[in-house]
Write the structure tokens for this entry.
Amino acid sequence: MDFWKMHGLGNDFIMLDDRDKTIAGHTDYSDLAVDVCHRRFGIGADGIILARHSDTHDIRFVIINSDGSEPEMCGNGMRCFAKYLYENNILVKEEMTVQTLAGTVVPRIEKKQRGQVVSVCVDMGVPTLVPEQIPFVHDGDRALGEPIETEQGIMSVSCVSMGNPHAVIFVPDLSVVDIETIGPLVENHPRFPEKTNVEFIEVLSHTALKMRVWERGAGVTLACGTGACAAVAAAHLTERAGRQVRVHLDGGDLDISWDESCGHMFKTGPAQTVFKGTVEI
């Protein structure tokens, strides 16, 4: 099986072309992800991403986490996906429509150098704030700064969906947060019926946030694109930040713009190829 190993700000993926369903006919995607994502016995990654045929869009995006679970979307993965499609001549378009479990996503090639894609801007769509649609168990119209009880005490979460669920927690100092303890407690909290990603946010200014993330199905990762968008939405709605924000993650920076006229979030950041190879499955 041919693959590309890629990353977006350290959030790494194994990219595969399965438009002809050869891989699907040979093995289960979840089993494959668990095997090849193992960092000692496999290639090593946070997940696998597969290009599939779509009847309604330019292409279909399928992502499977390293634990075998299937999330709806992945912002960092989408930038890598656009670069992978473009540089493999699968889809040589500056802008493409991509079918995902979270709906239509539109990545746009933002910057190229010597024929290589360097930066991609992704239209992430409109953030969902209705608790039932996130989903989050809550009676109100929105859940911003909502207290939830955990074994580590009460946590205040602001809940947003970017096609996948996010719990944003604002903290005064990220360096003292025990993410590996608190993250899974919030991810698996019963008020999140489909579990959740968890973003820990330190507000630096009206235009800058510092973020660390516990991803549903992957644990601590160096970056999360949908999480960065959710964090900006929560920060703006709670009057902590504006609509144009740079999010500083462990793996690098993302520029997030929340367009007031159309309500869409736009995320711009890098995508890089690490290496290419073949693996037996």
